[in-house]
Design a protein that fits this description.
The protein is mostly helical and 296 residues long. The chain contains 12 helices and no strands.
């Protein structure tokens, strides 16, 4: 690989890492198209090299999330162990599939995740009953209005604290762990097949099936991604599908990028994060299809 290509890989890796740490994805949704079109790798090589690069990228991001307490470790581990069981199956299926089918599967899965994320982001919040009914007649006197205003000001001051407590609190039960394993089984199969970490599947499922706080889904997903990618990478390495030079060059940029992305997580509003994640996934689904048509 030429020096210019290596530098480009590091630069792309930095962007991939930031998105990985911020969105809770391994970064494969960006790396597969880059490896496939930018570096001219075969489809199976692109997915294998992406899966290889995902491990150091996700690991650096999840370490930062653990330190910042923006993840739920038991659920992440449960999903990761479930995914570790099925990711080798995905690799085996990919090794027997034509290139166009692998890329089509990746685009469909990513596009479906994007649709769900954007649907939730733009869903209008339900109005509170008290607000919908308006002020009661007995609260219409000047004294009552002053009392209501005082309580309103106090509530406004406490709102950020309450919102933070609500987003931070999540009691892990046994059923959550079982659901986490089931989510991981699904994500692991997709991870091994299309060479992605599976975070684009797990983040929406963590939100819909477990009702995890959005601020903690990214870190939880990265823990699972780090674990479930390992068996698939070992299998891909044994099959000789990994381009280690390209993968390491990408990881040089993605590792510090993931740390930065995990730090940014604390400053990004939840709704904006949902919209950004959904748009990002939708773009990547289109890019995968366009790239495959261009290569073909």
């Amino acid at each position: 690989m030429e020096i210019g290509a290596l530098i480009a890989a590091v630069a792309v890796g930095l962007i991939v890492g930031v998105l990985s740490g911020l969105l809770g994805i391994g970064g494969g949704t960006m790396m597969v198209p880059v490896f496939r079109l930018g570096f001219g790798l075969e489809a199976i090589q692109a997915t294998a090299t992406s899966l290889f690069t995902i491990i150091p990228t996700s690991l650096s991001g999840c370490v930062t999330h653990v330190r910042n307490k923006t993840c739920i470790v038991p659920i992440g581990v449960a999903a990761g162990l479930g995914g570790a069981l099925t990711s080798p199956v995905g690799v085996w299926l990919a090794s027997m599939s034509p290139a166009w089918l692998i890329m089509l599967a990746a685009a469909l899965i990513i596009g479906y995740s994007a649709f769900n994320m954007l649907r939730k982001a733009f869903k209008k919040p339900k109005a509170a009953p008290a607000q919908a009914a308006g002020m009661r007649p007995e609260l219409s006197t000047p004294a009552a209005k002053g009392e209501v205003a005082a309580h309103g000001a106090q509530a406004a001051e406490m709102a950020p604290v309450a919102a933070h407590a609500e987003s931070s609190a999540f009691a892990v039960e046994r059923k959550h762990l079982f659901i986490g394993v089931a989510i991981g089984l699904t994500a692991g199969l997709a991870s091994g097949y299309v060479g992605v970490g599976g975070g684009f599947i797990m983040v929406p499922m963590f939100l819909s099936l477990l009702s995890l706080p959005m601020k903690k889904t990214s870190g939880t997903s990265l823990i699972a991604v780090t674990i479930l990618a390992i068996p698939g990478v070992i299998e891909q390495a044994m099959l000789g599908h990994i381009d280690f030079v390209a993968g390491i060059a990408m990881a040089v940029g993605s590792i510090p990028g993931a740390v930065l992305g995990a730090q940014l997580m604390k400053r990004v509003p939840e709704r904006a994060l949902r919209i950004f994640f959904g748009v990002f996934l939708l773009i990547m689904a289109v890019v995968l299809v366009v790239n495959e048509l261009a290569v073909a």
